[in-house]
From TrEMBL:
Name of the protein this chain belongs to: GyrI-like domain-containing protein
Residues annotated as domain AraC effector-binding: 7-168
SUPFAM superfamilies reported for this sequence: Probable bacterial effector-binding domain (SSF55136)
InterPro entries in the record: AraC_E-bd, GyrI-like, Reg_factor_effector_dom_sf
Amino acid sequence: MAHKFSKGPGVEMKAEQPYVAIPIQVTLREWGMTAAMVPEVLDWIAKKGVKAVGAPFYRYWCLGGQDGEYALEVGVPVEHMVTGDDRVVASSIPGGSYAVAVHRGDPDMLHDSLEALERWALSEGLQFDKRWEEEEEIWNGRFEFYLIDSQNEPDPAKWEIELAFLLMRDEAA
């Protein structure tokens, strides 16, 4: 297990933040499609005259595992709520307490950091804000914010991805 945190793990409060995103369902074999959506979202907001106010992110609703489909949104925080269209959705990052850590290094090694953050939160007695709908586990706030990535740093060893998992509301007190 080679997780590398450049920050955390810890608990942080985050304010509610509007964003725009493109929803997608993909398997791990199709994963390259997700990264290609970041420039599309950034182009969409530029054409609308809307300003990005944070790092691009993936918001996971359902985790697919090795063979299943992941349901996620590829998005970017924006300065104010806007109206989406038939391709782009407008929503907001929920405000509240998050279990947070910053993974440093290649995204191919991200799985170990995700597991380490989950183990840490559980060892602290924290509960994630998620629910079950029949057989599907649905996360209300599971994010990867791409703070430093291929857009501004060619060396994957220097990339930084903030992992942020929303905690149950009663954990915020």
